[in-house]
Specification:
Blueprint lengths: L2 H30 L7 E16 L2 E13 L7 E3 L2 E9 L4 E10 L2 E3 L1
Amino acid sequence: MSPDTKLNIIICSALTGCITVVCLLVFLISLFLPKPFHPDFRVDSAIISSLNTTTPDELTATWNITLLAISSDHKNNVQYYVVQVWLYYGRIIPNNYFVLATTILPPFVLI
């Protein structure tokens, strides 16, 4: 075997080893990084009462909606400081909707 062939084998082995070590490190680091999660928000109940029509163009009502937030991550707590809720009628995608009500929820923590 010529010295050039031995040198090529050593270089290829070293490069393969380095690539393997880097890939292994990336895999191990990805195991320990926190994973992002998206909590589930569901409407648990919705009650409309005191429905009144004061003018032909105006409708008033009392809305009582219970929103349920479920965290799938049991390792971390998530705190929400500002949550704005919109109740709308129509479709958002073609911009063909009417906002019926808005409110801001008080801060809360998902545990």
